[in-house]
DNA sequence: GACTTTAGTATCGTGCGGATACTAATTGCA
DNA sequence: TGCAATTAGTATCCGCACGATACTAAAGTC
């Protein structure tokens, strides 16, 4: 008879709030400790299925993107007391309200979470950064219509460094990922910015561009 | 009382045999089915600890590199009957003998493994390919001393495409990853190739080179 | 000794990415 | 109403990394 373990699914859900990444915390009032949303795995349930349901019921909507981070054995204590946990990252567009009983914690959320969960967040952001060149993570963190300035700012946020405007746009154009709308948005002063939408057309001559390499 | 699950650790261990990747299978005789080495997680054990021990006891030595792939809930049946499994990838240098009761299966090992395990191998190779630019995976798949031709052939094997010799060497030089030995190896006909060893010196001016981008 | 084979290097051209500077369109203010 | 300031977006130039090609070097083979 082998050992058996309770298994928790953790959700690390990011959005953008005021130009910074923010992570969804459950049950925190003012200044108090927060925790990642989680759910125990039930018999006969698949990991991805449970993670998808956890995200959907927590947020009230399906996240724009989601993937598994990996499994960890919690020598330090998981809130559920489960010795095994499987982490999932998800993203929702900027502007998504935190569901009732939850809060967006802008990073670095030094005080709000335990150190174990903060380590998970670091790994989660690394995953976002690693995969954003090949998956539409940045676009899922933005509303359907966005300006190229917002898109670049998001890339800079995830990559942790400034990008060159002309190079960014050249690369973006070469990748055939976005489509301009006949719509402009004026943001205070300055020339209005044209809005774009994510419309990837993988076509002949669309060379793959690794934005992460741009300066 | 939450549901509890037996949990298996799977080991996907690669080496190079005759210019092709090979994966370690347990218990296969001639032509028979093979299975990945695995071990059930015990109470109070950490995932990484168990994976390291599984690799060490299976191979008789610590692998040159190892990392977690992720967790999966086995709707199709795991050999251990555990409903949960956590996969690990590892590599050992070319020339490592298969331990007693095990065999190296050169890829594509179409017949030897079940489809579930073959999917894991595909994911494992994708992980190797994704991380080989930032972790010394290729060097752990080679003996301590190797020729640049062998190194390039290994990169080509993992990336699945030919690389340009001069570009590869230029990039390698710029990365300060290897050090020439005062030793040459003659391989049948042709000029002998100088041997090198992995000796990374992260120093001023060692620009990071993404070999995966080379043609 | 000529040919073949493999290792390794040099040279050149092209194209991408970064710097810089420019145009465009709006707000704020005198 | 016009000018400065601000932000969006583009054009031009240039350096350099990469790929192509051709070369040299050192061994085996006939």
Structure report:
- With 215 residues, the first copy, chain A, is an alpha+beta fold.
- The first copy, chain A, has five helices and nine strands; from the N terminus they run βββαβββααβααββ.
- In chain A, strands 1, 2, 3, 4, 5 and 6 form a six-stranded mixed beta sheet that branches. A three-stranded antiparallel beta sheet of chain A has the order 7-9-8.
- In chain A, a hairpin with a 2-residue loop joins strand 1 and strand 2.
- The longest helix of chain A is centred in the middle third of the chain and has 17 residues, at 115-131.
- Chain A starts with 6 loop residues before the first strand and ends in a 17-residue tail after the last strand.
- The structure holds a DNA duplex (30 and 30 nucleotides).
Radius of gyration of chain A: 19 Å
- As a percent range, the share of strand residues of chain A is 25-35%
Strand-and-helix sequence of chain A, N→C? EEEHEEEHHEHHEE
Q: What's the oligomerization state?
A: homodimer
Q: Output the structural class of chain A.
A: alpha+beta
Low-confidence stretches of chain A: none
The shape of chain A is: elongated
Residue-averaged pLDDT of chain A? 91
